Amino acid sequence: MTATTRPDAATAAIEVRGLHKSFGSNEVLKGIDFHVDNGEVVCVIGPSGSGKSTLLRCVNRLEEPDSGQILVEGVDIIDPETDLDAVRSRIGIVFQQFNLFPHMNVLRNLTVAQEKVRKRSRKEAVEVARANLEKVGLAGRENAYPAHLSGGQQQRVAIARALSMDPDMMLFDEPTSALDPELVGDVLEVMKTLASEGMTMMVVTHEMGFAREVGDKLVFMDGGVIVEEGDPREVLAAPQHERTRAFLSKVL
């Protein structure tokens, strides 16, 4: 399959096999096997330093794996023959920090990549941007600059920007961890809406309520390995592993 071929419904959106990643002498991922099915919301939890964000960042090669396989819609993104840009164009990613261009207004933040990467006309890019701003509850804020928005609003702009590229899936790396508590809810509501619309999502999060309510699968990582995974409601209510129980006793 080439990087421009669309998968059939049976192809996993993301499949990770035997993934290893070290930073110097610190082995952060120790042979991860993991998958996200099409239309599935997978929430990844665990203590700081467990490898959650590194796993997510390996999924679109923001971090370079040391060994293993990563298949995105059936395409091995570690294969040097793969058109990585073509694969990445189908993966939206939202970080802890919003990474908006401070010198551009909201509308331009949403249109610049559409025009440069998707080769859309200015008119089409603006139409797509406005539709996505409405989706995240920010219609009418298109002329604002990031510095004039709250953290929650900036994060919703970042989500709208990712959606404007028409991704097949969305990766979220602790998208609410940098927000004041009262701003978290608006961002989670946008993510819930995406999930209800069938968006494939991999979410590294500390929001256990979101994982319980929205997640199809919960993955608990610690020490660079997956300790436990399963239905979020079952794992959160009755974890099978002592390490999972110890972690959840501190966060629930």
Give a brief rundown of this model.
By secondary structure, this protein is an alpha/beta fold.
Radius of gyration: 18 Å
Number of helices: 9
**Strand order in space, largest sheet:** 6-7-8-3-9-10
Average of pLDDT: 93
Query: Helical amount among residues, as a percent range?
Result: 25-40%
Instruction: Detail the poorly predicted runs.
Output: 1-9
Number of strands: 10
Topology as H/E string? EEEHEEHEHHHEHEHEEHH
Q: What is the makeup of the main sheet?
A: 6 strands, mixed
The separation of the N and C termini measures 43 Å
Shape: globular
Question: Which helices and strands occur, and which strands form pairs?
Answer:
Blueprint: E1 14-23, E2 26-36, E3 41-45, H1 52-59, E4 67-72, E5 75-76, H2 84-88, E6 91-94, H3 106-116, H4 122-135, H5 151-163, E7 169-173, H6 181-196, E8 200-204, H7 208-214, E9 217-222, E10 225-230, H8 232-237, H9 242-251
Parallel strand pairs: 3-8, 3-9, 6-7, 7-8
Antiparallel strand pairs: 1-2, 1-4, 4-5, 9-10
Helix pairs in contact: 3-4, 3-5, 4-5, 5-6
Question: What would you say this structure looks like, in words?
Answer:
The protein is an alpha/beta fold. Helices cover 36% and strands 24% of the residues. The protein contains nine helices and ten strands. It has helices at 52-59, 84-88, 106-116, 122-135, 151-163, 181-196, 208-214, 232-237, 242-251, and strands at 14-23, 26-36, 41-45, 67-72, 75-76, 91-94, 169-173, 200-204, 217-222, 225-230. The protein has a six-stranded mixed sheet, with helices on both faces. Strands 2-1-4-5 form a four-stranded antiparallel sheet, with helices on one face. β9 (217-222) and β10 (225-230) form a beta hairpin. α3 (106-116) crosses α4, α3 packs parallel to α5 and α4 (122-135) packs across α5 (151-163). The chain is globular and about 55 Å long. It starts with 13 loop residues before the first strand and ends with a helix. Residues 1-9 have low confidence and may be disordered.
